[in-house]
Amino acid sequence: MLRKRLLYLAQLSAVGFGGYYIGQNKEKYCDFLYGNSVTVDGKRILNKPGLPVFGTVSAATPFVETNGSKDRISQIMKYGFPGLDNVRSYDDFVLSYDRRNRVPHWVFEHITKDHIAKNDAVDRSKCEFHPDESIHPFFRSQNTDYKRSGFDRGHMAAAGNHRLHQKHVDQTFFLSNMAPQVGEGFNRSAWNRLEKHVRKLTKVYDNVYCCTGPLYLPRRESDGKSYVRYQVIGANCVAVPTHFYKIVVGESSDGTLDMEAYVMPNQKIPDETPVSSFMVPPETVEKAAGLLFFDKIHRSKLNRINGKKV
Amino acid sequence: MLRKRLLYLAQLSAVGFGGYYIGQNKEKYCDFLYGNSVTVDGKRILNKPGLPVFGTVSAATPFVETNGSKDRISQIMKYGFPGLDNVRSYDDFVLSYDRRNRVPHWVFEHITKDHIAKNDAVDRSKCEFHPDESIHPFFRSQNTDYKRSGFDRGHMAAAGNHRLHQKHVDQTFFLSNMAPQVGEGFNRSAWNRLEKHVRKLTKVYDNVYCCTGPLYLPRRESDGKSYVRYQVIGANCVAVPTHFYKIVVGESSDGTLDMEAYVMPNQKIPDETPVSSFMVPPETVEKAAGLLFFDKIHRSKLNRINGKKV
What we know:
- By secondary structure, chain A is an alpha+beta fold.
- In chain A, 23% of the residues lie in helices and 25% in strands.
- The first copy, chain A, is globular, with a radius of gyration of 19 Å.
- Mean pLDDT of chain A is 85; it is low at 1-20, 24-28 and 34-61.
- At the A-B interface, β1, α6, β10 and α10 of A face β1, α6, β10 and α10 of B.
């Protein structure tokens, strides 16, 4: 009986998510990204988008180290904090810092047409990558960690989403907002196209809320067991994530909410791969990241998830 | 000049920590465990025990999901929270849960003679391992995750430290207090000896404060690069830590404070290996774990660290 149920769930997964592109070793990451179920008391149950999400995280008043104005932070974080570990806010984005891995857990942005409009007063070429002094020196990444590592200092909050003031774009260059990304074929192409796609959503939605971060996904190895394996770079052992995610909610003027969720492998991706092929069910990202995204919105209140009617 | 300084520091490290036993692949883990220095703005500086530790973590009022009494929690956490991620308290211990890895970040205990005294009203054999319903089902480990994995459900807060009431020992059997440990030769021997050593400290000190948790240490591989690699078990991908740490502070009746810090590899360890050979400088554990231990005690106020006068 249980076996039958599991087979049924496995089939559902195969039908539902078979088309997603999760890198060259697609099948090996499947447990995390293709399974749309959760194990409770030993039983695997299907995890529908409408499953009530425990509201404990957002219910707490988080301790936020504040640079930005309270109003702006409230606006950015309108739909809930994905987690509460080492949260700090900047003038135009909020992040949670992973002190063990020296990269963010998540970075939250609120983007409108105004934030991304061409602005002659803002010059990205004036920006410099700099260590974030607000992070304890034990856990602070440095430019020297990235030097000669072969990896880009990849923005989590994209510089191009913060064009209202020079200070806003400057702050996206804090190393606390970076994670090591493969440069050619990823940061400078596929990932960049995903960032542009998110900006284009401001043409459709009045408000775009975007959460971005790293993943460390397990892979089945030749011994049949699953392992998480990732490189660390520099004297401060900065983690090189295996994947990155983006979870986006678009809010229309009539209050309609649509969600899109993406996971991309941190590797060279063929230029012709469409952004849509990286869509994954948001729950799979939540389970892999240990975070709950937009938990102030009950999933059943969403209009569409990844383009499909809820 | 800088080169000379680095050489000097390297020599210091070699002299100071050469005797530590960090498992079979000792030299490969050395960056994290032997280096007693920190990189600031590209320079490696010696990190003396007296280095001021940023007090931000303990200064914040943490959000604690409470089972135990406020007074007891204050007593257990007297010397500061190592981190503030998903903190939850039980009647006789406090833990921070790593939702990504489905094991604790840290577990804090306050132990006295009374807590470990023989008590006929308490029967450990009545205890059962059970999932912690206070953890969201996405991130909750289950008994089935451990079944046939080859790993023990290893207590972080040790059952033997909570003998005042049956409820106290019962709560140490929550799976949120467990991490996968090698059974034979580790959990049932070397690690057990370390737990017994901590209990024996109550003969010397009025109050013993003990923080325990997992580590995921990078290793240099044959390509010359460093990687973190660890197995994950079960449908919920519970992480198998590469190492475990214990940081202990003993408080004498006159207020004198001594600290001991241990790191053990999660592997079979020869029976004759003395517990003292696993001592490491506490700062190395802090850097590897992304946590700050006993940060309400300035290190210069400690009398001894690992048996040596500060």
